[in-house]
Amino acid sequence: MPDDDHGAPTPYAPPAPGAVTVYRGATLFDGTDRPPRPGTAIVVDGERIRHVVPEADLPALLPDGAETVDLDGRFVTPGLIDSHQHLATPPDRPRAEAVLRRLVHSGVTAIRDMADDVRQVGDLARATLVGEIPGPDIHYAALMAGPGFFEDIRTHQVTRGASAGQVPWMQAVTPGTDLRIAVALARGTHASAIKVYADFDAATVAAITAEAHRQGIPVWAHAAVFPATPREVVEAGVDAVSHVTLLAHQGAPRPLTTYRDKPPVDHARFAAGDDPELAGLFALMRRAGTVLDATAALWASGEMTGSGDPEAAESARRTSDLAAVLTAQAHRAGVALATGTDYETPLDDPFPALFEELAFLVHRCGLTPEAALRSATAVGARSAGAHDLRGTVEPGRLADLAVFDEDPLRDIKHLRTVHLTVKRGRRHARADFEAGR
Fold first, then answer.
1. pTM across the whole model
2. By three-state DSSP, how is residue 228 classified?
3. Is residue 70 located within the same domain as residue 132?
4. Residues 343 and 404 in one domain
5. Within a 13 Å sphere around the CA of 4, how many CA atoms are in the beta-carbon half?
6. Do residues 269 and 366 both lie within one domain?
7. Terminal CA-to-CA distance of the chain, rounded, Å?
8. Which residue from 155, 152, 149, 146 is spatially nearest to 118, judged by alpha carbons?
9. What is the pLDDT of residues 298-353, one digit of tens each?
10. 109 with 242, same domain?
11. Angle at the Cα of 312 from the Cα atoms of 309 and 315, rounded to 5 degrees
C-alpha cells in the first residue's frame, strides 16, 4: 500500500484527542433555553466539548498541559449554521473556497448545501472536514424531481459530462422508478439528505419520504412541490421545508399543477399576517416538528433588488413583505425556524448573507435576537439532521463556537464583532481573515 503519510496537507485539521484547550472568561449563550451565563469556562478535548462549568469549578477539572485561551468576558454562542447554501451551481471552485473561508471566519461552522454538483460539493465537504481548506462542515443533499424539472438550465450546469435526471445526485423519478434503488443511489453520494424539489404529487412525495426514512436518511423539500401542496408536503413527513413564500400556495385560487406553472399569489390576502388557512398549516408543522428554512431575507437582498429594473424591484419588495409576514406568523405559531439564505453577499463584503438573514428575522419578523440565534444554532442543527452533534454548547458535542466582542443578544448587529471561530476544536481568528491569511 502507499505510504499513509502522503497526501495533501491538512493545516486546518481538528486537534487530536488528548489535546485539551480551555476557553475561560466567557459569557455563554449555549443554544438551549438556559439564560446567558457569565464567568463560564469551556473545556475542549480534541474536537469535542468535555466540560462547560463556572470558572470556580475549573481548577479541579484542568488537566496538566492544557492550553488556556482567555476570552476576557467576550460573548460565546454555538457555531452558526446557514441552512440554505448552493456552492456549486455552476461549479466554481475558487469562488466556493472563498465563500467557505469567509463563512468560517464569521462564526459559521456548518451549512446545508441544498443541491449542487455533488462531484465538487462532496470534495469540498471532505476538504473542510479533514482540514485541507478552511470552511464549515457541509451537509449536502441529493435531489429528486419529476422529469419535467430537468429542462431547467441549472440541472445541466450541475451534471456536465452526464445527463441531468440520470445521475445519483439529480434523479428524475417516474411512476416506474424503483424507489429502493433511487434512495440507495442518493445515499451512495454520501449525501446527508434527499431534497424533494418539484413536479411530484402528494403520493410520490410520501412514497419517497417513507423509503428515505426506512433507509435512514432525512428528506428536505420545497415548501410546495407542485402539484403537491404545502400541507401535503408536511403530511408526507418530510423533515424540513424551504422558502416561506411558497407556503402562500396553500391558499392558491386553483389546484397546483407544475413547478413552471405557479399560480399568482394574492399578496393582499396575507398582508395582515393572520391567515386562517396558514394558521392550520403552521399548527400541523409545529405538531410534526417540521423545520421551516424560511430564506426570509432573500427577496430583500441585492441579488433580487439590484438589477435596475423598476418592475423587478417592485416585485421583490412585495415578495419580501410577504416573506416577513408569513415568517412572523410561523414564528408566533411555534414553528421551528432555521436560518437559510439561498444567496451570498458579494465576495468583497466582509460578512456573509447569514448576518442579513438574522437581522431580517429580528427587524422584520419579530424574533428576539435570542430566538434568531437559536434558529441559527440549535434549530439549524436539526435542519441538517445533526442535532446530536452540534447546535448547542454542551459536553459531548462538537467544539463549534463563535466568539464576539460585543453581545449579539443585545443587538443582532453585534454579529459583526466576531472575534474567533472554533470549528471542531480548531481556531479560526477573524484577524487572520481580515489580514488575508
1. 0.97
2. coil
3. no
4. no
5. 0
6. yes
7. 36
8. 155
9. 999 988 887 778 888 999 999 999 999 999 999 999 999 999 999 999 999 999 99
10. yes
11. 150
- Residues 205, 224, 226, 192: what is their CA dihedral angle, to the nearest 10 degrees? -40
For 289, other C-beta atoms within 10 Å of its C-beta total 12
Average pLDDT over residues 120-142: 98
Domain count for the chain, please give it.
Answer: 2
Amino acid 137 reads D
Contacts of 121 (CB under 8 A, 6+ apart): 87, 88, 113, 138, 140
Average pLDDT for 238-254: 97
**Residues 259, 128: Cα–Cα separation, whole Å:** 34
Structural domain contains residue 14: no
Quote the pLDDT of residue 1.
53
- Position 373 pLDDT exceeds 90: yes
Task: Please report, for the domain that includes residue 355, its CATH number.
Answer: 3.20.20.140
Residue whose C-alpha is closest to residue 285's, from 222, 219, 233, 220? 233
Peptide bond into 9 cis (omega under 30): no
415 neighbors 108 (Cβ within 8 angstroms): no
Alpha-carbon distance of 374 to 361, in angstroms, equals 12
Cell of 343: 444567496
pLDDT tens figures, 54-65: 999 998 888 889
Residues 282-303, mean pLDDT to the nearest whole number:
96
- The dihedral sign for the CA sequence 36, 37, 39, 41: negative
- Do residue 96 and residue 194 come from a single domain? yes
pLDDT confidence bin for 3, thresholds 50/70/90? low
d(CA 107, CA 393): 14
Which domain range does residue 348 map to? 79-383
Q: Does residue 185 share a domain with residue 278?
A: yes
DSSP state of 425: T
Quick check: is 12 in a domain? no
In terms of domains, do 100 and 185 share one?
yes
Same domain, 175 and 124: yes
In a domain, 377, yes or no: yes
